[in-house]
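Quick question about two entries, pasted in order.
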Amino acid sequence: MKTPRRLQALVDEGLIDSVQRQLMSGKEATVYVVRCREETRCAKVYKEATHRSFRQAVDYTENRKVKNSRQARAMAKGTRFGRESQEAAWQSAEVDALFRLAAAGVRVPRPHQFHDGVLLMELVTDANGDAAPRLNDCDFTEAEATAHHAALIREVVRMLCAGVVHGDLSEFNILLAHDGPVVIDLPQAVDAAGNNHAKRLLLRDVDNLRDFFGRFAPALLPTAYGPEIWALYEKGMLQPDSPLAGLFDAPKGPVDLGGVLREIDDARAEEAARRLRLATPP
């Protein structure tokens, strides 16, 4: 196919030999299958973030660092330079998270290079060597669903041990590779220790996994892995191989009603935004 304009610079630099086809297009990026010498990889070309709400951006970008005070002031004022800086920070967050998680042994696409708004990374494939499907395009037996759920809970634990919460984990951003699930799409990843929304986002990630796989394995629906994982993390006891039971007894004590109501409002807003994204064609 004809080389897209955004990929031409990578061809000129010798980072890409040829563009084979478009793999997918969404609101945040377009992904192409490319040839890099002997390897077939994918190139994620980021789009301008015009469809993310301010509330979501604040939740995900809290405590993210920028290069200098000029950028921080421009981002706060919402100037053109500030918006460009914010978008660059959003893109680099995924790159940083991928390198960090890959080094920690988390099952994510192996990143290779980030150049001018394009992320070159491993193409995740199925048993036939084709691009792996997303979980939402697959059906499972009860045994398969139980096994994949257990594997992904372990990936959530590995991510948290590396200090990262995915923040938007669901069946729509997990691929089923030939050797098991692979987590993708991390521009909204948050720092577990530095973001006040990290606990809520992790609990939602785990609930999304429970709800999806619970369609095929109803025994998963009563589980409470999220609170169990976070409690171990808060105590400094969470390890990549920590045994988990999927059970959690909430501590007894006074209820912070204001905090509960804020959590409900945030959850409602995020669900409305998610439904809007799903209802709007790419």
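Here is the second entry:
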Amino acid sequence: MNLQHVRAMARKEWWHLLRDPRSLALMLLMPTMLLFLFGYAIRLDISQAPVAALDLSRSAESRQLLARFDASHAFALVRAHDSRRALRQAIQHGEVWGALIVPQDYARRLQEGRARVQLLLDGVDANTARLVRNYALLVLQALGEEQGDVPALVIRDRVYYNETRESRLAIVPGVIALLMAVIGALMTSLTIAREMELGNLVMLRTTPLTRGEFLFGKLVPYFVLGMLDLVVATAAAVWVFDVPLRGSLPGLVGVSAVFLLVVMLQGALISILAGNQLLASQISLVQTFLPAFLLSGFVFAIENMPVVLQYVTYLVPARYYVTLSKAIFLKGLTPLALWGVTLPLLLMLLILVLMVRRRARKLGLLP
């Protein structure tokens, strides 16, 4: 091995990196970004989980029990519900993760050594439901230790929308977001950058094809592929993984089409800004796939993340799509019922359309 040749090649590569500050900055910032994302976003415990409470006993014993839950760092107790129907609606719309019901005869049955309370859980996220139940049991155990004896208290829990508590029922709808993010953003980011590298954009002047038609024609095949992936993923979810599709199929297709357009426009914007395929693929991976995996609520509950990252998730399109997908599959809700989640996704689509048009016009891609 000739060390001079190695040194010369290394010097050449260093000069190449220094002449391309965007790639150099990405190489330096990506490990740091991944470190902070994995370090802060991945949490397997719960903190200030919203749990509703219905106190039918209205006794000193029931108030002591609820005060114990309220004092725990794991729960943020909500007592604004006055009926079981209101509790179910709160769980259905994702306002709370669970509900604690203290029966009317709680105080008397506690003295007799056979008291019971009911815990209703949102099973859309099976792991979170399991954590809420385990933390509730810890609260009861701590209460018994303070009193010198474990109280004769049993929790009867009931899980809605995922009675079997299988994680795949919550994971499979979220996987669809990851698949569409890869097809929509990564592949779209490569196509325009490739044409810019080959210099084919200059040849458009000799053809009757307008720049707008060129850009639109580039995106259509990837939109079709993305929707085909949605069909395959939905069929596999229902018939292979036994995930119930309780909501409207047209509603699922509609929100999926909007999400796919959003990530495709993200990829197009990245492609125009990057100018080459390598940089475009790296940026699209960092800005679409990783946030969709870590910051969308797909695996880890957003409410368990630090406050700063919770605000960052509002900029992640997959956050809204994962919520809509799970709600349509498991809860049978419509996009209109969750307009507070659907509207931000539509606003993102409008903003990205304007940004892509403006940037493409500056670079001469659009008239």
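Reply: The domain at 49-160 is CATH 3.40.1710.10 (abc type-2 transporter like fold). The longest strand covers residues 115-122. Hope that helps.
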